[in-house]
Amino acid sequence: MAQRFYAVPMDSYQAAEICSWTYPSPYNIYGWLPWEQMKGLGIEFGDPDIREQQYVSILDEEQRMWGFAQLFPMEGVTRIGLGMRPDWCGLGMGKQFVQSIVDVARQRRPEDEIDLEVLTWNERAIRTYYNVGFHVTDTYERMTPTGKALFHCMVYMSSDDSGNSIRNRYDYEK
């Protein structure tokens, strides 16, 4: 039976929990600063206004937090940032998890295109995004906390969108 996920506004307890997550290498780049530091600097979900406007926690039916999403509004686009609890990555729940985030983005701003950025080496995530309906539209270099890295921009195309306008350059269905 498929897991059912839903989004709730992220609270400070959930934000603090996310800051305690540690990912194994090479995924450790996705870790956050300690919660007290995030609050003190007022960055990302450490800022209560940004947390309220852009961040949601993704829960299952048993109220367990599986991860979070940032729904960053841009002109005509909602850019998704997301993270799954590290000890639950790789358990086959990624497609449902990401789909629940897409659903929230569409509810909030139904007219927007939905996209995300992903490091090009993160094939596990890219496969998941592709299986949800995202397609690579661009590849570029940008700064990360550890220096410059290559990213794909992936755009969501729902099943009712025409697949002719965007062709996926990569085959991640294997």
Structural overview:
- With about 170 residues, the protein is α+β, with helices and mostly antiparallel strands.
- It is about 30% helix and about 35% strand.
- The protein is built from 5 helices and 7 strands, in the order βαααβββαβαββ.
- The protein has helices at about 10-20, 35-40, 50-55, 95-110, 125-130, and strands spanning about 5-10, 55-60, 65-75, 75-85, 115-120, 135-145, 145-155.
- A 7-stranded mixed sheet has the order 1-2-3-4-5-7-6.
- Strand 3 and strand 4 (about 75-85) form a beta hairpin.
- The longest helix is centred in the middle third of the chain and has 15 residues, at about 95-110.
- It starts with a strand and ends in an 18-residue tail after the last strand.
Strand and helix layout:
Layout: E1 5-9, H1 12-20, H2 35-41, H3 48-54, E2 55-60, E3 65-74, E4 77-84, H4 94-108, E5 113-119, H5 123-132, E6 134-144, E7 147-156
Parallel strand pairs: 4-5
Antiparallel strand pairs: 1-2, 2-3, 3-4, 5-7, 6-7
User: Kindly, what is the distance between the CA atoms of the first and last residues, rounded to a whole number of angstroms?
Assistant: 23 Å
Count of helical stretches: 5
- Describe the sheet with the most strands: 7 strands, mixed
Helix content: 25-40%
**Uncertain spans, ≥5 residues at pLDDT below 50?**
161-174
C-alpha Rg (nearest Å):
16 Å
Helix/strand order: EHHHEEEHEHEE
What are its keywords?
alpha+beta; 5 helices; 7 strands; disordered C terminus
Briefly say what this structure is.
The protein has five helices and seven strands; from the N terminus they run βαααβββαβαββ. It is an alpha+beta fold and 174 residues long.
